Amino acid sequence: ADMEDMVDFAEWRHLLMERVRKVMGHLERYAYLYVDDRKEFMRQFLLEEIEAHAEHGVPETPPTLERFREQVDSYERLYEEVQRLEPVHVFEGWMRVDARAFKSALLNVIR
Question: pTM score > 0.70 for this model?
Answer without folding.
Answer: no
